[in-house]
Amino acid sequence: MIRVLRLSARNLARYWRRSLLTAGLIVLGMVAVLLFVAVSASFKQIMIGQITDSMLGHLQVHQRGYVASIENLPLNLNMKPEMVARVEALLREMPEVEAVTPRLKFGAMLSDFEETTNIRLNGVVPEREAAAMPLLAGRLLDGEIRNGLLEPGALLLPELLARGMGVQVGDTVVLVATNVDGSVNGRTFLVQGVLDAVTGPGGRDGYLHIDDARALLRMEAPEVNQIAIRLQDPDQTERVARRLEQMLGEIVNPRGQPLLTVHTWDQLTPFANIARMIDLLDLFIRIMLVGIVLIAVMNVMIMSVYERVREIGTIAAIGTPPGRILALFVGEGVLLGVVGTLVGTLVSLGVVRLLNVWSVEFAFGRQEIVLAPALAPGDILWVAAIVVAVAAAASLQPAWKAARMDPNTALRHV
Amino acid sequence: MALVEASGLHKTYREGDVSVHAVRGIDFSIESGGFVAFVGPSGSGKSTVLNMIGCLDRATGGKLLVLDTDVAALGRREAADFRGANLGFVFQDFNLIPVLSAAENIEYPLLMVQNWPVAKRRARVAELLEAVGIADRADKRPDQLSGGQKQRVAVARALASKPKLVLADEPTANLDHVTALRIIDLMKAMRDEFGTTFVFSTHDPRIVDAAEEVFHLEDGRIVDGVGGST
Ligand SMILES: Nc1ncnc2c1ncn2[C@@H]1O[C@H](COP(=O)(O)OP(=O)(O)OP(=O)(O)O)[C@@H](O)[C@H]1O
Ligand SMILES: [Mg+2]
User: Do A213 and A329 belong together in one domain?
Assistant: First the structure.
């Protein structure tokens, strides 16, 4: 086998310009794919991380019907305290769950005594919200974290709103909310911090203490309308969601229908579609790589066989077994693939390294994203395997033709 | 028993409606250790006969035994194995492998056709380089060799795996007269040294004299039987 490969290598070296060009094409394709994979994976990971770790969590539990009307922030689909207690007890039994944060979401009017605007708010238990949303504190642009996240009587405002109204940290503002029976109530709050807006539902919400929220809404029982859950391992999201759904299925209404729903983060944000789109692009660019390698290698191998008909006739006449002639030409294709793969991998690793040193930033909506592209060994191996396999496949047909040549006819070829 | 035994050998090429009778029923036999020439004008069927003996072409009639093997019955793969094991070839255009040095070209059949161990290969290649007198050019690629040197390498390659029979179709046609005579002398010397039977073809009357047995072909037939000089 090694002797065959050595001869293949020499034949490649004979037409080194052409071989170099073909290998270069493979390198280019490989680098394009690996960079795309690295950058898109990093982008996806950052975006998903931001969404799950600062807003949505991995899973959310609501009363049935709440998610469908979440845009209206209804207050008549709250989970009663006993129900919340049961859910929390169940979640405590699940080792996959890292943290749980109950929320009371509602809409209100925000006024700084001059202007008034609408705001979406999350009433949260500060330390629990901070534990379940580790990236939330990092979104603070102005002000500071106190009491785990925020103090009673304090408010974290989204940046766009605060800027639009000219509200600063330390200012006093009024929140006016309509409670479930339609009566209106107002309270003053201190602006404790300003949060960076991020893409996704809840990326432009304000935060306040859940007790303040209940007082504002004149709520008698400690109800919540959302329970966000952070998991130890995000890859387990689907599995845990299914299990949780099954367990929560025991909580039913008098007609025997389950009262609660479980949603995974990707069911709650349109970014999931972007993520799917990226996966699709990833597939397309891989298919293109297959096409490039196939055409490049096949082209060069067809030429190679055509140019060397008499040589093939000679080695066949001498008695070289057809299988070995086949191997000789497939060897050339495979070597091209292997060399292209090796160089392509090295170049890709180098470029990824540079991208990390230079730190590529770009704005996605309002967000500044710093990409941290990385190549997983699995991705490299996968792409390399595709390239080498396709190179072998592409040389198979020309090699087959060479192996099947009649020596006499081939020798007569001019 | 003769090395090659032909009786009533026929070869007809069909190209569409036209049949070309390249060989029209010839009988001959070649003894082991012979130095035999097929001679005749262009188109007389020399290459066709040599190709049939060399299992590169199949007769359309008659019987042909090479080393007691009915070569017409061999399949593609069997024919390749038979050639690799028993025959050597020298071509008019040298047909060396351009990416291999002289020594590597000689080594090729031992490496790629048969599987000789490396030490044996080296020894055989050195022996042949010496025998054909190009030991000093061993590392040169074919494009760095003269025509005569190339044909010497080709003769050495044909002899590498110790075949019983070497077939050379017009081995001197691309060489000047002096070089041609040297190559024929070399082949004869190789026959003397290794006992290999040589069968070659030529239409050059000046080198025919070197052959020990000559078959004159004309229009696919052997004329005036066995002739030539010794
Ligand atoms: N593959 C083929 N297809 C058709 N006709 C062929 C083929 N090979 C040889 N012939 C014909 O058979 C006849 C004998 O050809 P052959 O090549 O054996 O002659 P030759 O004696 O070797 O001639 P030369 O001295 O020119 O090489 C010629 O008429 C030739 O055209
Ligand atoms: Mg001829």
Answer: no
**Residues A107 and A190 placed together within one structural domain of the fold:** yes
Query: Of the candidates A11, A317, A321, which has its C-beta nearest B89's C-beta?
Result: A317
Token pair 């070197």 is at which residue? B210
CB half-sphere exposure, A192, CA atoms < 13 A: 20
Residue B167: closest CA among B67, B18, B77 = B67
The helix or strand, by DSSP H or E, that contains position A158, with its residue range, turns out to be strand A154-158
Do A248 and A278 fall into the same domain? no
Which residues on chain A are in Cβ contact (under 8 Å) with B97? 311, 314-315
| Residue A46 CB contacts under 8 Å (≥ 6 apart), including other chains | A369, A370, A371, A372
Domain of residue A28, residue span: 2-50+273-411
User: For residue A320, which residues of chain B lie inside 8 Å, CB to CB?
Assistant: 80, 84, 112-113
Contacts of B175 (CB under 8 A, 6+ apart): B147, B148, B151, B183
pLDDT digits (tens, 9 = 90+) for A103-136: 999 999 999 988 999 999 999 999 999 999 999 9
Residue A194 lies in a domain: yes
Nearest CB to B112 within list A313, A317, A324: A324
Instruction: Tell whether A310 is within 8 A of chain B (Cβ).
Output: yes
Beta strand A172-178 pairing with A184-195? antiparallel
Q: Say what the pTM is.
A: 0.81
Cα-Cα-Cα-Cα dihedral of B219, B223, B226, B227, to 10°? Answer: -100
Closest CA to B160 of B126, B198, B201: B126
Residue B108: its chain A contacts at CB < 8 A? 315, 318
B65 touches chain A (CB under 8 A): no
Q: Tens digits of per-residue pLDDT, B16-28? A: 899 999 999 999 9
Topology (CATH) of B2-225: Rossmann fold (3.40.50)
The domain spans of chain B are: 2-225
